[in-house]
Amino acid sequence: MVPTDAKGKRPVVAVTGCVAQQEGAELLRRGQRVDVVVGTQALTRLPDLLKNSDTFHAAKFDVNPYDNVSFPFSVTKRSDPVRASVTIIEGCNDFCAFCVVPYTRGHERMRASAEILKEVRLAASQGHREIHLLGQIVNHYEAPDRGGCDFAELLRLVHEVPGVDRIRFSSPHPRHVTKRMIEAMQDLPKVCRHLHLPVQSGSSRVLARMRRRHTRDDYLRLVGKLRVSIPNIALSTDMIIGFPGETDHDFEDTMSLTREVGYSSMFSFKYSERPNTLASARLVDDVPAADKTQRIVALQELQKSIQTKLHQQRIGTEPEVLVDSVSRKRRSELAGRTSENTVVNFQAAPEFLGRLVRVKITNSGPFSLHGELLQGH
Ligand code: SF4
Question: Could you say which architecture CATH assigns to the domain 73-312?
Fold first, then answer.
């Protein structure tokens, strides 16, 4: 029974995203009180499906595939006053063995550059100083409406939009990092000095089983090129531990790659089967749970020690910080991020929220920096 408000109206219950795509029909079959089920590719239909949704009784249901990736701007609500996420690509054609995205989000579709730029201009005019470009393989972008406009060119176009102070993007795939993309990152000061570069494993043998289409050597060569071209760049990554067939030796490769790259941060996960993926159909989840736990604990300890050292090296520097929130630990402090995506906490009045400020770093921990406000603009 869904509760009603004082006027007897009940909320509209909508289920969206990958769970809706995979389990939506089941939710309805089990008689759940759901008004709208909208799959990942039908999200643009959400406003239509919600219209009059409190006056009908039968659930509206759409998990069909659609090629159209445009979204009506008038319904976009942004809760973050500082950052605006703008999707440029939907879907993926890569079929990595562990991943559900190609099944739930469908094949790769590009948004028109004109539409992306219109959304960026609108967000900037509303005060969002940081634009975060999103896509499953964000750097595979090719504009369907502008011949020759690849991801590097799109970065240049977004860079020209007045009011945009910072540009981030996620997630790029290592095999689509081109010379043009690196040059654009080098040339454009608003593009943040941080690259999230998912590797997933340090073992070429495991990478092949994952169908990642890059080897350990390919990845390390790319890291070398990035460090030469953009010396202050911070690299972060995703790592899967205990993928089927991962041996102690493979895991050691992951540890040595982590040491060699010196990541600024890492999302690490213990492998678990996802429905309908190639790994769940063809590979046995054969690494014992205790081994997965032991390995991920060792990896996270290593990563923490790397971050601690990197952060200690920042003491005495004066990075620019985009202030985005009140500090979670101390309410009298504000928090923001450096271009390299490191969190910095410092004492300042709330009027600095949303501003770019210069902060002198005085202290550090494994997960954040602490500093003193120098000046803001
Ligand atoms: S991990 Fe990334 S590249 Fe691989 S299938 Fe999933 S979305 Fe595509």
Answer: Alpha-Beta Horseshoe (3.80)
Residue nearest to atom 2 of ligand 1 (CA): 136
Do the bridges between strand 60-62 and strand 36-38 make them parallel or antiparallel, or are there none, so unpaired? parallel
Classify domain 320-376 at the CATH topology level: OB fold (Dihydrolipoamide Acetyltransferase, E2P) (2.40.50)
Cβ-contact 358, 374 below 8 angstroms: yes
Q: Which two tokens stand for residue 357?
A: 């400020």
Rounded to whole angstroms, the Cα distance separating 270 from 289 reads: 9
Whole-number Å distance between alpha carbons of 31 and 49:
19
Could you state, in order of their start, the residue ranges of all structural domains in the chain? 14-62, 73-312, 320-376
Residue 21: C-alpha distances to residues 25, 26, 86, 89, 104 (Å): 8, 10, 22, 18, 6
Choice from 109, 134, 137 to test ligand 1 binding pocket (greatest atom count within 8 A of CB): 137
Q: What is the pLDDT of residues 170-226, one digit of tens each?
A: 999 999 999 999 999 999 999 999 999 999 999 999 999 999 999 999 999 999 999
- The 10s digit of each residue's pLDDT in 295-344 is 999 999 999 999 999 999 999 999 999 999 998 888 889 999 999 999 99
The pTM of the full predicted model, rounded to 2 decimals, is 0.90
Pocket of ligand 1 (CB under 6 A): 92, 94-96, 99, 101-102, 136-137, 173
**pLDDT exceeds cutoff 70 at 370:** yes
Q: How far apart are CA 38 and CA 238, in angstroms?
A: 28
